[in-house]
Each structure stands twice: as structure tokens, then as C-alpha cells.
Amino acid sequence: MPDEVxxxxxxxxxxxxxxxSSFTGLQSGISC
Length: 32
Description:
The protein is mainly α. Helix content is 75%, strand content 0%. The protein has one helix and no strands. It has one helix at residues 8-31. The protein is rod-shaped, with a radius of gyration of 15 Å. Residues 1-32 are annotated as: Disordered.
């Protein structure tokens, strides 16, 4: 079970950055 915990960790780490990138792009478009 402990092995399954470290697996989702990396996935979640890759998730937030992608969302932040999308948000930054949206903000950039609104700023323009």
C-alpha cells in the first residue's frame, strides 16, 4: 500500500505546474 502512495505523488506534482502554466497563459491574454 505504501508503494501506491509515492506513485500518485509524482503525478500530482506534474498536475499543478500544468495548471499554473495554463493560468499564466490566460492571464497573459487578458493583460494584452
